[in-house]
Amino acid sequence: MTKRRHALQDLTWVEFAERLQTDRPVILLPLGSQEEQGPHAPMGDYVVAERIALAAAERADAVCAPVLPFGYAEFFRGMAGGIQLRADTFSRVLEDMLTAFLDHDIVHIVICNGHSTNAPLIADVTHKIRRQWGVVVPSLNLWRLMPDPVWQDIHGANAPQARGHGADPLTSVAMHLTPDLMRPDLLSAAERKTAFGLPITGQFSNLLFQGSQIDVPLDVTQVAPDGVGGGDARLSTAAAGAAMTEWLTAYVADFLTHFKTCDPKMPNG
Q: Are the C-beta atoms of residues 257 and 58 closer than 8 Å to each other?
């Protein structure tokens, strides 16, 4: 096995210390989730998030920490096989991950979040870190990074129908990065239920009433019994996944390169 200079788990502590002395690399923290992604895709979506983070770190000459494979995924608790952290547990673990580097005066840290429901908790933790340490830790919400023109370039007129939990971007990216784990015979479009006689909007648990949205604490089994929360996974392809993976890798790498030139303690400086 070839030692990867950009993967923290491959380095000895002496090798990492030498890197800190020479170029003070940006540290990338990949986060993910162990949750259902529809009947056709593996539950460990953190695997593809980590692969993109590692590829971006290599391009940017950064160092990627080991992935946190479990996230805050209360909505998916109804399907067996998922591993959900409580909000308090996730927040404490993330804070511990960040302070493990801050304790050594490593302040160039970027989060690569591969599970959108983590985002509010990440914001809470990074604000706390800023108050206590004076350090700004950016977070990239991986699956929300691609702007509409990129979606349209990849999916054309089908772009709106292709997006959603259990569809793209994760299905196409998994087709590209982990094709042997896919079940293409089970690809399907989303079939959402109603609740209290009202349509459920968005990907998760919002009801539409008189033109406005109401949040309700539903479970995935009450919204999408097959786990496809939105979009049509039949529109996903490995070619689309390759294009998405390349765009995401380049974007994350570009940000890491830019952030290395910045002072995390002086965002306006």
A: no
